[in-house]
Amino acid sequence: MEDYNTETTLADHNAFWEDMQHAVRFRVIINHDIKKITFQNGLPSSVEDMMEVLKQAFSITTDIGLQYKDTDFDDFFTLTSTADLKDKDTLKVVHVPPGIIMTTVPQECKPDTSDMSSVDELLSLDSQDSLIPSPPPTERQNLWPAIFPIPSFSYNTEMALRQGNEKFLKDGTPLTSPSVKSDILERLAEAMFSYTAYPNDPQRAAVAQALIEKHPCLREPGSFNGCYGWQQSLKYKCANYRSKLKAHGNPELLINTMKHKQEGDRKPAKNIKKPRKSEVNYLPPHPAGETDDSLETVRLELVAVSRTKDNAHMINDMMSRTYSCRRREVVGQSMQVAEFKERWPALFDPLQVNKLAQ
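Structure tokens predicted for PB1 domain-containing protein:
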């Protein structure tokens, strides 16, 4: 009987240690709280699965990101793979501010246009709710990314960054070069403009964080997050970059100048027209070689063509050519739907509406 009990105890003991070999424990920082979690069956296969487990375990209802503490740098880095983790590592839960991650939701049904004329007098068309076909492929195509891709800089800057990262890894010395910083800010402002002309605070913070993660030598000693100075510099550099493009006649920026504002809105910070619902091509320039007069001629031809049959291909071409013209009317004039329908009858054709809903 004693031999049986001894064997049973040893079996239980071995099973316990076998389970412990698979268990992985983490120290988790959530805001100002420090918690502990144990994964009894090993690590989840992906970062997304791990975030879901943490959200359920700690009753987190908002979108989050994860950072882990790297032992080489003694600092937190964005977690991109669970393979980077080991037992007793420290994780930090980062709450994702609204506006950084933006997604589009596909429509599951097509709008009913059978009784559209009955609501013409009740609705007004403004810059936030518009029915516009897909823009030409030469214009802005992408929404703000979940993880901002840091672009390549000039050859001299890339060389300085490589040497700076090596030195920072060796003795922790940051890179402080005005010429390098100037080139970095200029290139980042250009890259940010490819997604939006008016980046907000969370977006600028995301760019600054991505910058110091890719190039640790750019971390700012004494900054509470290592990149607050970069965030502020990006704010002013983006404004300066917009001023340069405004001088070249960029319509997305000219619409907010005092000259182009309506009588009651002529104040610098009043009624700034910018994307608010993740619009990609909010106010694109005219196609190459086109002017207001030439597009007005196309619009008049489009009105005539829309009254005939079997011309869907021609209408699509004309609608694509006049996309920028419609956007200027929608954003700048905020006319009534009835008036807009009179000027652009093809836009309310079921074929065009169905195309928008796809």
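Confidence is low (pLDDT under 50) at residues 1-20, 98-138.
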